[in-house]
Amino acid sequence: MSSPSTAPSLRRLWSFVRPYRWQVTMALFFLLMAAATTLAFPWALRRLIDEGLATGASSDQLLMGFAELLAVALVLAIFSAARYYTVSWLGEHVTADVRQRVYAHVIEQSPAFFETTHAGEVLSRLGQDATLIHTVVGSSLSMGLRNLVMGIGALIMLVWTNPWMMLKVATVLLAVVLPSVYLGRRVRRLSRASQDREADASAVAAEVLNAIPVVQSYVAEQREAERFTAMSVRSLGTSLSRIRARALLVLFIMGASSVVLLWGLYLGTLSVRDGTTTAGELGQTLVYVLLLGSALGVLGEVYGDVLRAAGATERLMELLQTRSEIQPPAHPQTLRWPDNGISVRVEHLVFAYPSRPDRAVLNQLSVEVTAGQTIALVGPSGAGKSSLFALLSRFYDPQAGRILLDGVPIESLDPRDLRRHISLVPQEPVIFSGSVLENIRYGAPDATPAQVEAAAQAAYADEFIHQLPQGYLTDLGDRGIRLSGGQRQRLAIARAILKNAPLLLLDEAT
């Protein structure tokens, strides 16, 4: 797949920067003032040389000349510090906004999205890619703009002070810019490929770390380590290609900048020898050429960073552009949820998972449950019991048939409203890092401790909870690793009981 240009990716990033227009304006003001102050330094240096050193000025006159240079340096320091603070503040806020927006969007995707997208890849985008954006917005972009202004300013001052030399220097600059564009495009392509390889390795690591007991029970540590090493080597190879391309880009720009500087020095020396330029003018011109060369060097570095950030932005924007397959209707119906339960009717249901479209899990299934009735679905593994629960919760839509609650098709309901009235205990109980209290209260955040204890007692979990070191305040660790499988199951049941929804779905919660 061909990689889109850098500009569209960065334009999409601008939507996150736009809310901070005031801070951007201040950063640009400080940046321009810092650049202007830097450009004023050669002018002050020229005055010191021509009106002080070259004419045998008095000590007071020399002191005034150095005072001018000191004043310029102090003003430069103030504006540079203000620019750094404002831009760093902007980078932190934009990166936080990007992470929050992407995370909030991802967790709203249907389970079908996670059938084809690894959680580790998403984490890589939220982590590494967002960090690259932070580097550019909070540092590199500011440096690039500052040096761009300085470079343009140096060119203008060269035209003003020595137009003939500027014309000669410009011919060398053209030879710098054109090859840099070609090398920059190659760096960007390799940056995107490198980030994809890193995401693949992160996905494998996340998968294995979440299944350590299984990995160790099958003595697969060495095999998994070798698999991760192989993916890391592929990632390393791509990264090294990117580094080589970027090093070549920097080498070319820095080398060309040095040529520009030496070319300017040579021409200036000839002018002083011929008497057409004063020593002060030569000093001023050389500093402007030096600023121009330095600006080109920094712009080369920043260009590489911007290209990497463009790839990172593209990957994050891909996540934001993902649209969930389950969407609420334009005009959702409102269903009355009676206290005595709700009737469920399944009519000729046909369903296959998006990742396995040729294999129907449910085929012409019809079930009817009256309000308040308790039924059990019995069948072998893979018969579709869990799939039916997923369809009832509208995590997926069937290929044919329909599900009705009190005669209302669930597609006409807002999925969020539907799920608020369903308590689901999955086949594999999910325990979050945090306390027992927080886990049981997950479905009813406003529940009182007394209500939580009542739900735990109903799920026969109260006894073992009181045996934990801090009772209901005991931290359960990552995925409830400090509990047995049965204890995790009872907490999941207590969570569903506390939610007290009209429709209770127990997926093998024995």
Q: Nutshell version of this structure?
A:
By secondary structure, the protein is of the alpha+beta class.
Largest sheet: 4 strands, antiparallel
Query: Which secondary-structure class do the elements indicate?
Result: alpha+beta
- What's the mean pLDDT score? 79
Shape: elongated
CATH H-level homologous superfamily name of the largest domain: ABC transporter type 1, transmembrane domain
CATH architecture of the largest domain: Up-down Bundle
- How many structural domains? 2
Radius of gyration: 33 Å
Strand order of the largest sheet: 2-1-3-4
Order of helices and strands: HHHHHHHHHEEHEEHEHHHHE
Would you state the CATH class of the largest domain?
A: Mainly Alpha
Counting DSSP E segments of at least 2 residues, the number of strands comes to 6
The CATH topology of the largest domain comes to ABC transporter transmembrane region fold
**End-to-end distance, in Å?**
49 Å
* Unreliable stretches covering 5 or more consecutive residues: none
Number of helices: 15
**Strand-residue proportion:** 5-15%
